[in-house]
Amino acid sequence: MNTQLRRGMTLLLIVFMVSFSLIALEAFSAMPSTTLKSKYVIVGQEKIPREECLIVDIDGGRQAAPKVQNPFIIGATGMGGGAWICAIELLYYVNIVNGTIDWWLATGLKYDPDYMGLTLYLRKGVTWSDGEPFTAEDVVFTYQMLLNYGPQLNWGALVQEWVEDVKALDKYTVYFRFKKPCPRFHLTILSSWGWPPPIVPKHIWEKVDPTKFDNYPPVWTGPYELVEATETRFVWKRRDDYWAAKVLGPEYLPKPKYVIYTWPGPEEKRVAEMARHMLDSICDIDVGAFLELKKKNPYVRAWHKDPPYTFLDPCPRYIMINTRRYPWNMSEVRWAVSRAINRTRIIKVAYKGTTTPCEILIPAYKWHVDRFISKVEDIIKKYDPCKYDPEETIRIFESLGFKRGSDGVWVTPNGTRLSLTILAPAPWIEIKRIAMFVAEDLKKVGIDAVVKVLEGAPFSDAWNRNNFEAMSAWMCYSASDPYYLFEYYHSRYYAPTGNVSAANHEGYRNPELDRLVDELAVIPPEDPRVVDYYRRLTEIIMRDLPSIPITQAVKLVPFDYYYWEGWPTAENPYCAPCNWWPIFKLVLHRIKPTGRRPPTETLTQQYMWIIAIVIVVILILVGLLIYRRRRRRA
Hints:
The protein is of the alpha+beta class. It is globular. Mean pLDDT is about 90; it is low at about 25-35 and about 600-605. A 5-stranded mixed beta sheet has the order 19-18-20-15-21. It starts with a helix and ends with a helix. The chain is built from 21 helices and 25 strands.
């Protein structure tokens, strides 16, 4: 009996030891540590020290065609990998954060007194990445290319609309002659806060078809060259022969030797990467995720140090309705949809209270409030576009003769069942959430609304080709001047479903709006007459509601201060904090290394595994030894 008891206790001891070993293994695997992956970044066959690399995530997720680096191809899906920041340089940068212009490839411009022409002055000493000089001939060639190809290229239709001719007056001076007065040419066509037509090297592009040219590897004037391009990673290597370091001073050579745009995956994976200092900037994350990240990484902060943390983005969020389709072509139906949407709930739940409703698709920057919103506030209040009143939705449908079907869904007088598919982009979480909440609200009032989530490339294609019923979307056109909100709806941009259009994807057409926009276009922004046009155009937009505004846009963009410092903040607003905007290039010239090395633990994870396995083996051997000895005694 004693022998059996001893054997049982020995077996129990062995089971305990094995269980303890397995628990130890699990604990070791969960311990935070610095592995070789976080000490180095692998580029080709090289191990690049982590502290020499700036790593940011790709806005929009996977890039379907990473080796198509031609921004003029409509629907190009490889340009989100950092080209606009690391390699493409603008003539100048319109800084919407502080209202200034940062001159770059150009040094100045001058309008003719009648705004029928503009003279552009270029910076001397600029060179392309292949060493060729950047001159007026490159600017002339770029705009002539857009004039020749028109709507076959991005920006082509816009340039054809305004530019009559462009010519070089000398090696560093360009003259644009307009078809009609164009006092806003410098705000959106020549350059902008966002993505204007980039200047291309004539000596390369004159030999290719720009509608088919991949432009890989790309040649631009910027400080980095592209050395790797995949769907989820773009690696840019610094060029130490960068022109600005010679012309403007050595301090203009960016400090990061490599800039890496990467797509780790969903939000939780991006947060995990920044928690262990393997991501220096994240495009946008949820407030809850940000707060959890700060607990794991005390070096993280956003635009504001304290709540709400967020940066006011210039692209208000809205629901884009395809007005080419019945019954969405009826303004009354669009108003019924708007009244059914509970924006307060969207802000409270989807945004955690960090934004405000958007009544008209203009970003609520102070200068927009002063120059525009305050001048039309009474008209906006009259229509109250953000009012939540589902009972009014029902009254509107009943007044139009709609009847509820047996399933509770409204049916129009011609028998059309009121259903709506809302497209939403998978990579942009908050925009996708808006679609989800809107669909829930519409279902409550008898609209059979569903959300279809698409990856970035097919979502963009549906947008560009007007191939949708509704989309959860964003409006960036009005960021630099209110005129462009109204110009967006001009019928010259109308295209049937399935065809590409540069603007007015809603398909809205109104001759009265067209006439007023055409008249406003030739009036300088500072002219007092613009206010009357703003008021009349706002009345039209409020009355017809071609788009359904939802919220002001905010971005929570975390930066990790472990390896790099000098990021833009509300206290130091030299630039927007958005790593996907072209103007983020200015950040590359401002951030500096902190001098910190990769963090280390007493034991790295790989050695923990080895030690844990050794412990398991020792425990098992000890258990077997004890068992054998007791067996002999028995």
